[in-house]
Design goal:
The structure holds two protein chains of two kinds. Chain A contains five helices and four strands. Chain A is an alpha+beta fold. In chain A, strands 1-2-4-3 form a four-stranded antiparallel beta sheet, covered by helices on one side. The two termini of chain B are 13 Å apart. The interface between A and B is medium-sized, with 17 and 18 residues. Chain A: It comes from Citrus clementina (Clementine).
Chain lengths: 180, 143
């Protein structure tokens, strides 16, 4: 438990994963690159959930597992808890983090920005698409953790207002027999 | 003395099973472990019966046989650990301690990026660590 990883190492690793998969392995297939990055996250989340739930009593229902993700798991990974949790009581959860740490220091290459796009809206768009590539990994982590806890689900992220806002849409296909 | 330890996956698939007896009774021990899985299911699905150990990872004594006592442990990820011991007076704290260390060893083994989730644990380091834990279990209960 005592071993820690420098935050800047994780940041650089994430940046490198994204750029390698996007520009080298699957340069012309961004969807495939996204899937691969998500799969890496899935494995990481699968393993982390085993470690972080070690000292805890077993979860009695899905809501408790989601709460664990929002509080403990989130603060282990991103050093803060989520800011808002919403649910439609039909198996969809929306986790909102107003300052998502892994995206807080993101910026686009200024040289690319200057040559390719002069107007600010296009620059913002390229930044958003770059950020979208960066959230596949954390989405995969959350999906891996939840499925290891017995909740098969789909996780998608909505980034509307960088870097302040990150919404994670969590929905799982299992219709649970108890009311969450 | 610990006769057998086992790790069983969430679909009741064996992930690791190791007996520590001199005699050739591996099959019998496997059978005991297999039977205990039903008891684990029963405990989990009827939480009223398990009483004070509600939602605890440690399931306590699953059932005693003539020669053995069988203990169980269920993680949040629905992985079961089974311990078969020949000692008839075992302290609960010892068993808890054993399972905690066993769980830590298991976590380290499955965190190996080369380990395929849901497949048998083939790591030699894990096997060595488990046998160390098993040996020290005998010592701590004697002392």
């Amino acid at each position: 438990m005592g071993r820690e990883v420098s935050e800047s190492c994780v940041d650089s690793l994430l940046t490198e994963i994204v750029s390698t998969y996007n520009n080298r392995f699957y340069a012309n297939k961004p969807e495939l690159a996204a899937r691969r990055i998500e799969a890496i996250g899935y494995q990481v989340g699968h393993q982390l959930s085993e470690r972080y739930t070690m000292e805890r009593p077993r979860f009695s229902d899905h809501l408790e597992a989601i709460k664990f993700i929002c509080k403990d798991f989130w603060s282990e990974l991103f050093k803060k808890q989520i800011d808002n949790l919403k649910t439609n009581h039909r198996g969809t959860f929306v986790l909102q983090d107003n300052r998502f740490r892994w995206l807080s220091r993101i910026s686009t290459d200024p040289s690319v920005e200057n040559t390719e796009s002069q107007d600010p809206s296009a620059a913002a768009e390229s930044k958003a698409s770059l950020a979208t590539m960066h959230v596949y990994f954390p989405c995969g982590i959350i999906r891996g953790a939840l499925s290891n806890l017995g909740i098969p689900c789909a996780v998608s992220a909505d980034i509307s207002n960088l870097p302040a806002c990150k919404e994670l849409l969590l929905s799982y296909s299992v219709l649970s027999f108890y009311d969450i | 003395m610990i006769a057998c330890v086992a790790v069983v996956g969430h679909q009741n698939n064996p992930l690791y099973i190791q007996s520590f007896t001199e005699a050739d009774d591996a099959l019998k021990l496997h059978h005991i472990v297999h039977c205990s899985l039903d008891v684990v299911d029963e405990r989990v699905n009827n939480p009223k019966k398990s009483g004070p150990t509600l939602n605890e990872t440690f399931l306590g004594l699953l059932y005693p046989t003539e020669n053995y006592k069988v203990y169980g442990y269920l993680t949040n990820t629905k992985v079961k650990f089974i311990l078969v011991t020949t000692d008839l007076d075992v302290r609960d704290a010892d068993v808890r301690n054993f399972f905690r260390r066993f769980h830590a060893a298991y976590i380290d083994a499955v965190s190996n990026p080369f380990h395929v989730p849901g497949k048998k644990i083939t790591s030699r380091t894990f096997a060595e660590r488990v046998s160390t834990i098993v040996k020290s279990f005998g010592l701590s209960s004697a002392g």
